[in-house]
Amino acid sequence: MEPNGRTDGFTNSEELSGLTVYDPDGDKIGSVEHVYVDDRTGRPDWVTCKTGLFGSKETFVPLAGARRQGSDLHIPYSKEMVKGAPNMDADQHLDRSEEEQLYRHYGLDRRTGMGTSDERGMDAGTGTGTGAGAGAGAGGMAATGAGAGAGTGRGTGGSASDMREPAMARSTDKGDEWSDKESMIRSEEQMHVGTEEHEVGHARLHKYVVTEHVTKEVPVSHEEVRVVREPINEADRPRSASIEESEIEVTLHAEEPTVRKDTVAVERVRLDTEKVTEQQEVSADIRKEQVEYDTKDDDASGG
């Protein structure tokens, strides 16, 4: 499938990083993860797009015919074609055979490239347009020096080594990555402090009966007898009187204290917990690796 459109003229890998990729039908494919540039021109030519469930797979996508709209990158390839691209290691430099697989999958002709006619003519070296285009196209995946007869051969004596393949390399902002022989990884233990809850005891309520002696004062009353003498006036005096013995009886009353006990509810008692926070110090021994610089000079030891 040929790209139906023009390349957006991408010159900086940073402008492509993180863009959301869409196919011609507007279906979202994924997001740009890595940007690959041509070794000779330094221009972005391919990107890797995260696809699959939860973005677990990275797939190579050519920038031929791609155009940017804001934070979106629209490509002329269907979502199924991108997902079915050959699996490549996205963290490594791609060799020629891997590039060929990608070109075949997307239906691209390596000889057509993705650049302008002026660039193709300048990089191809001397000779006719047809010969220069074919030679450069067979050696590189990008547009530079890859014309198929479109260039006029305006170059100034390009040699065979100048026309070899401009391999594809991953673009990074950190420059060339160190090799395993030039670097080492230093590790150390880190202390993470947390808390966990566990039982420390039990609390319960127990009710029991105690007896205590209570004394209270109670007012009591009683009746007492006293003799009251009243003179009888003339109107109340009886007509006859006799002298004889007699007696009368008076009933006396008195109050006595009594005790009565009733059981009543006086309060409700329950258990409740309250969290109290205090500071405690914890300590542990942690290990870390140290790196020392050492230069061994064999000539110096020999005098």
TrEMBL record:
Biological-process GO terms, alphabetical: photosynthesis, light reaction
DUF2382 domain span: 184-292
Boundaries of every PRC-barrel domain copy: 14-80
Pfam name, any one: PRC
Biased composition (Basic and acidic residues): 110-122, 162-180, 275-294
Cellular component, GO, one term: plasma membrane light-harvesting complex
Chain segments carrying region Disordered: 1-28, 110-129, 149-180, 275-303
Source organism, top-level taxon: Bacteria
InterPro entries, alphabetized: Bac_photo_RC_H_C, DUF2382, PRC-brl_dom, PRC_barrel-like_sf, Stress_Response_Assoc
Compositionally biased region (Gly residues): 149-158
Signal peptide residue numbers: none
PANTHER family documented for this protein: STRESS RESPONSE PROTEIN YSNF (PTHR38463)
Protein name in the entry: PRC and DUF2382 domain-containing protein
Species, as recorded: Streptomyces daliensis
Organism taxonomic ancestry: Bacteria, Bacillati, Actinomycetota, Actinomycetes, Kitasatosporales
